[in-house]
Amino acid sequence: MSRRKVVSPIFQGRRFFLMLALISVIGVLMLRAAWLEVYQQEMLQEQAGKRQNRIVSVAAYRGMITDRNGEPMAVSSPVESLWCNPKKLLAVYKELRDEFDVATQQAAEAEDEDASASAHVAGLRFTKLKEGLGRIEEVLELEAGELLDKLEGAGDKHFFYLGRHLPPELADEVLELDLPGVASTSEYRRFYPLAETSGHVVGMTNIDGVGLEGVEKAMNDHLAGRNGKKRVVLDGRRRVIENIESIEDMVPGQSAQLSIDQRIQYMAYKALKTQVYKLKAQAGSLVVLDARSGEILAMANLPSFNPNNRKQLEAYRYRNRAVTDKFEPGSTLKPLTIAAALEARVIGADVEINTSPGHLTFGKYTIRDPGNYGSLSLGAILSKSSNVGASRVALLMNPRDHWMFLNRVGFGRVPNAGLSGETSGQLGNYSKWGKVDRASHGYGYGLSTSLLQITHAYSPFAADGKLMPATIYKRNEPVPGQQVMSRETAHTVLKMMESVVQEGGTGKRAMVDGYRVAGKTGTAYKYINGKYRKDKYLTSFIGIAPASQPRLVVAVQIDEPKLDSSGGRAAAPVFSKVMTESLRLLDVPPDDLPEVKQAETMTSTKEGAT
Question: Polar residues composition bias: which ranges (predicted)?
Fold first, then answer.
């Protein structure tokens, strides 16, 4: 006998009620979906656009800086900068921390599995966020807890840079942590392949890519370009997943090609650094100038700086002393004094100057030579570096003629070579020159110049009396020069300067094997607190080679050497090294070999016979 199953009316009522409730919920959801799709579509699309569509800046690529041969001296490489919404990140951090604390307390009080599980989940979420913040601190090399302090210090800001110019792989690693409010922006970082070797010439930019020093500053508008704008779609991590449209085109920066030869620059800096350290000097500067074109092939300074390492930048290191610092040139001005006198026709090239008794007195002011040289030719005044001789030559000139000559070769005027911070030096008006001023100007005191200025002033001796405009940028076309002295004067004084770099001259250590060299040594005492200090001085040597067919002018200055006091001992050896290697690198043929001399003698003989 089978039993009949009886269903309770109450159970049937519950089932009907649940089915009715489920159908009602589904109906409400469908109505809501229809409402949103039909009547709220435009609003929802607008809200989605606000959350996903963004107008972002497209960073302009800063133009390269290259040397004269196209080798890079400054390039931009892509980097990422991490940023966050500190208010949002802190809020999430505090919320998860409080949630974890509450769950832990409840688990301890309830002592059941559900409370322990809740505490465990809250702990995992909070720990993940803490580990993410810790990883950011590792990437940014911060102390533990320092990041939270920085976020707290940001106050109510909605934008805060966590780290600038990070390698893309490190930024991606942080973004993978999926921290709330953390995102990145693509930028460019400047890189300088020659580092400290050319730091003063190329200069540097700040972290936002704006030029601060050197060519980077002088040519900032040319190099910088212009940022663009585009509309993009971002994902949940604020990464670009689609480019929608370009609003404003990015204009990349233009490149700048310098006159610098990287090979000569590196070698010159190394030679200068070695000598500055060897002599325990305070500083040093060096300029290599192509006299035929006016192009600067090398420019070095000590102390220097590495523009790639911003953490060790110190203001006193990145001053380009060769163009910004002015000094009294001392004896290196004497060849220009003789040239000025020859141009003014107050003396002839074969005249002798009486320097007896070895000093010249003007009231309380006395000009002295190391000894009584007696009567000296103009060439001997240079080779022996006679202050009395140079003063007597200067006194023969009308002050106006002397001033005009010095001004023509660049004294008292900014060189305008294209570098930031160039000084004009100081050349007082001739109407205010007294007899002491006229005499002291003859041997390089009472006026001031930069190393670039006086190097440039020497270039007419190597260019048939023409002064070519100085430049730090490569010239692809010849430019006209200014005839600042006659061809005859330039050749005559150049020949006189050769005696300085021979046995018995003050610059014999500047000799270059296989080449004839002309030049002049200089030692100038510093004027401090109203008097000249015998224990503080600048030593220098400026020379030209090859003397028969001049090409390069090299100037070296050593500031306050502790071990050698004269330009011939401190600066001339650096000149010799730099000039030797520069001539070799430029394939300039020797002019002081026996076979060359023989060929020149035979040519002279034939010309004489004709």
Answer: 600-610
